[in-house]
Structure formats: C-alpha cells, structure tokens
Design goal:
Blueprint (H helix, E strand, L loop, with lengths): L12 H18 L3 H7 L19 H4 L12 E4 L4 E3 L5
Antiparallel strand pairs: 1-2
C-alpha cells in the first residue's frame, strides 16, 4: 500500500497496474460479451476481495462463454443437489 496513492481501484501504482493487466486479460477473453465483462471486473483492488487465479489458456472465464453456462451475480438463497434457487425464487 502506498498511503500517498489515491485511486478508487488501486492501493499503489503497482496494484493499479496489476488491475489494468487483469482487466485487459478479461477484455481479451470476454470482449464479445460486455454483459459478462461488466460482472467479472471487481470494484475492489486486486487480491483484496474475490481473487480469482486462472490459467490463461482455459479457465472459468472461458467456461462462462459456453452455451450451457449462465453467470449468476444475484443473491443465492438455496443450493440443493439439483438446483440453485436465487433470492427472487428463480431456479
């Protein structure tokens, strides 16, 4: 952390550069799906909340582009063996 560095998405110049590199990676992978890109870019500085370490060749980011996968970013109420129920009742 650099106490003199002021930025809403980074805590130091190095941290900010890491964020920009990760956003560039996500943009390369998800550029055709702005809806996914928006959900996958965290508001917090890198490694401070929900860090995702991924393989650059095939990862969760690539899986999100599959036709049989849906990214759910709303609250989850219940997970069972066969379903996931969202707070709004959607399964």
């Amino acid at each position: 952390m650099d106490p003199d560095f002021v930025d809403e998405h980074g805590v130091s110049p190095v941290n900010k550069r890491i964020r920009e590199e990760r956003i560039a990676f996500l943009t390369r992978k998800l550029g055709s799906r702005p809806d996914l890109l928006e959900k996958m870019i965290p508001n917090s500085p890198p490694m401070s909340a929900r860090p995702i370490l991924i393989d650059s060749d095939y990862s969760v980011v690539d899986v999100l582009l599959r036709d049989d996968v849906t990214l759910v970013s709303e609250g989850i109420k219940l997970v069972t063996e066969n379903t996931i129920e969202l707070n709004d009742g959607t399964q």
